[in-house]
Amino acid sequence: MIYDVEVHGYRSLLSAKISLKPGLNVLVGANGSGKTNLINFFDFLTALLTDGVPSAFERAGGAAHAFSMESMRDEEPTLQFTIRGTPQLGVTGVFRGAEEPRVPYTSYEYDCTIKYNKALRVVFVARERVSLLGSGVVPFVVTRETVVSHSDQAASRVDFQTQDVDLYRYLGRIIYPKDDRAAGERLAASVSPHWPLLAHLEHEHQIFAAVSLSLVSLASINVRPEAARRSTSISDLSMLRDDGAGLVSVLYRLKRGQYYPVNRRRFTTSIPQNNQRAIFKSILNWVSEVNPDITDIETSPNNDDATLSADVLMNLDGQQRKFAFRKISDGTVKWLALVTALFAAPAYGAIEEPENFLDPRMQEIFVKLVRDRLISADRVFLVSTHSESLLNLCTPDELLVFRFDRFGTTARRPNNQAELRAVLKSSRFGLGHYYRVGAVDA
Ligand SMILES: Nc1ncnc2c1ncn2[C@@H]1O[C@H](COP(=O)(O)OP(=O)(O)O)[C@@H](O)[C@H]1O
Ligand SMILES: [Mg+2]
């Protein structure tokens, strides 16, 4: 999980330091205070590690939108961020080595600087540092520096600072079997200025894969009902997409214990078969919590056109009825996709203004779900909201209050948490009320 983030130079995040906690983190603040920018930042980070620099900026609407306006005025606009967290273990996949050294690292710090060289018209990763940390062990630190000279030439340096001879040798040997001294040099020669070094390292050893999976854990989901309802091709083995596409395929495979999602990484968090069926059941339970008429979801292959489709079974006045996915309501489909996104790894970690499709009773179930599901799993979930009824369900420590001034966006936990807790206990009003009347001091 990610527990700490510092961003300098992404949109309105000029110098933002934000601490996250397991479970719900509720982003509140006036329009324009930067809630969306923080959520977008984590989508940018996910795209950066998955698809590289050009795609990440493309998805963010171009360099002029992603770099802060302040930074864009500089000769060399710069975006720098530091993220601290715990590696997401339980990763399996195709790593090049057979025998991997055991690693004692329990947390990490990832630091990255992206620059826009206006003279050469190139946006590139200029500096990177991955530090693996553990109690009582010397950190394993990999640094990367890249300098560009003319538009298609870049020179990089990669250095290792470590006493972990096993892991270093492992990286050296595995990457370049004939020369186990020169892991740094050879990595430097192969890393592209348009890619984070971490995206290379994640294929070499589980520990870097685990860091990378932690870093992409806060990508946001924004379900479009028409995408989520669509029949999928039998050949589609992808994870659930951020617009809900692929939902039918994910449910089909979970139900059969055949869910091995393929993404651009060659590894994923593996889910044992039995757990997959349990996950399907949990999804169904949380769906029938919202709509008690729903008794099952049937998915069926159609070999003639190589597609999968899904039906929802409902018990209406004692009669079993079947409804094709394309006929069920927007609200139900969105809820189903959201629940699936929370349960089926690789998961999503953020959603904007869910009050747009969750009525107050569903909001209650949503908050319960996120707390139940995520706090025990040490996972973070970000929710931005303007809804008083949603806030009424939250506790003071879950709030992150956003503000925007000439120093950019800041986000703070309330200062008067103890006071708020006391007043909430003795009154019939919820936190949303106190937030609206300005009683939350942050
Ligand atoms: N590239 C940028 N540089 C600086 N500020 C930006 C940039 N892009 C957007 N902003 C500012 O960010 C704010 C919008 O933040 P946003 O995250 O959409 O707010 P919220 O979601 O809290 O309503 C606006 O005030 C806008 O001026
Ligand atoms: Mg917003």
Major sheet description = 7 strands, antiparallel
**Distinct ligands, ions and cofactors found in the model:** adenosine-5'-diphosphate, magnesium ion
Rounded to the nearest angstrom, the distance between the terminal CA atoms is 25 Å
Number of helical stretches of at least 4 residues = 16
The outline comes out as globular
Strand content: 25-35%
**Computed Rg:** 23 Å
What structural class do the secondary elements suggest? alpha+beta
Please provide the count of β strands: 18
The whole-number mean of residue pLDDT values reads 91
Helix fraction? 25-40%
- Spatially, the strands of the biggest sheet line up as 2-1-4-6-7-8-9
Parts with pLDDT < 50 across at least 5 consecutive residues: 176-180
Tell me what the structure shows:
The chain is of the alpha+beta class and 442 residues long. It has 16 helices and 18 strands. Strands 2-1-4-6-7-8-9 form a seven-stranded antiparallel beta sheet. The chain has a five-stranded mixed beta sheet with strand order 15-16-3-17-18. Strands 10, 12, 13 and 14 form a four-stranded antiparallel beta sheet that branches. The longest helix is centred in the middle third of the chain and has 18 residues, at 273-290. The chain starts with a strand and ends in a 6-residue tail after the last helix. Bound molecules: adenosine-5'-diphosphate and magnesium ion (MG).
